[in-house]
Amino acid sequence: MIRLLAGAAAAVLMMSGAALAQDSSQPASPQAWAVHAQATLTLQGHPAFRSPYRGLQSLDPGARVDETADVTLYAGVRPWAGAELWINPEIDQGFGLSNTLGVAGFPSGEAYKVGKSEPYLKLPRLFLRQTIDLGGERQATDADLNVLGGAHTADRLVLTVGKFGVNDVFDQNQYAHDPRQDFMNWTLIDTGSFDYAADAWGFTYGAAAEWYEGPWALRAGWFDLSKFPNSASLDSAFDQYQWIAEGERRYAIGGREGKVDLTGFVTHGRMGSFADALALSAATDEPADTALVRRMHDRAGFALNVEQQLTGQLGAFVRAGAADGRYESFEYTDVDSTFAFGLSEGGKPWGRGDDQFGAAVVVNQASAERQAYLAAGGVGILVGDGRLPHPGAETTFESYYSLALAKGLHATFDYQFIDDPAYNRDRGPVSVLAVRLHAQY
Description:
By secondary structure, the chain is mostly beta strands. Helix content is 10%, strand content 47%. Helix 3 packs parallel to helix 4.
């Protein structure tokens, strides 16, 4: 697989060079079609750490290293004015640490809940986006992954339908949102309590609408849930779904841009309440299991996302959120409340303008109901040590340095210190180190 990634990276760089030659002058008309690609290889590991016991979904206390790799093609075409049709076939391979288990804020966004030792093909995205101009200043749209170059008015309506990621539209943050280029921890790249609809790879079918007017934006979406919590298959009947609404306000302080997003969601699906699972456990003297008590519930939550430019290349961000802690998480991870703060700095001050440095802290917490469930032997989406006599907040510090090796090619060195993994004061702390190689055109 490493040879495959090396070949893919070389192809990406050659395509990048050809594109640079073709794009030496700004096109006079909207881009009619585009092809982009990316390849990412990540090696992540940790030394042995303190662990007096472990459960079915514990982080392995022994020293280990795992790898993940992916190659993605982004092909887009403009079928009519204002429209873009994109398809993203992808080849994946590899496993997250402990098969992507053992930490609520899992340390690699490049690791999915489904791992395989051999490369396999999947289709994360196939969607249509329609932009309808509503007036205001005309603004250029730079070509990018899943974005055709062109222009739009400041006031506009954007409609997206098909298969894509909820976080392609909602909970966006320019400093912490891309595990292939910036932070890697799940609860830094997305708000940990935002239990967004997705299959085990993070994608789903749905529709979203975005309305932009002046400094404001309003977004709404409806998305399909998995067949059951943390499933690799989506609910084909669409009788389990999620509603999402988001408001955004962009502003400037002393000429430095910033924004605030507030996102709310309601998940309507068959999920188990921790109280019912604990009652059944007490009656049967078996470990608690939400899978045995699932019925239709609504689980609500919110996410707050703030970003602020501090200097030319230095930015700060805050993520915070909470969700109804009475019920099991449906899709993302076992976090009921979260708070994160971080900084991101470009390398221009030290003469490395294409380099990037970031540092952040995130504190994730489980509700009292979830703690009691884990203490009774229950397991969630990612965590479950078999017991939890001494619960605590899971706190992670992450820092990375992305080194520009060539145009479109970066090597990143990442370190995470995780205290009380899976909310368990008896285990850890654990240091997680990673090296990531990313090529993009």
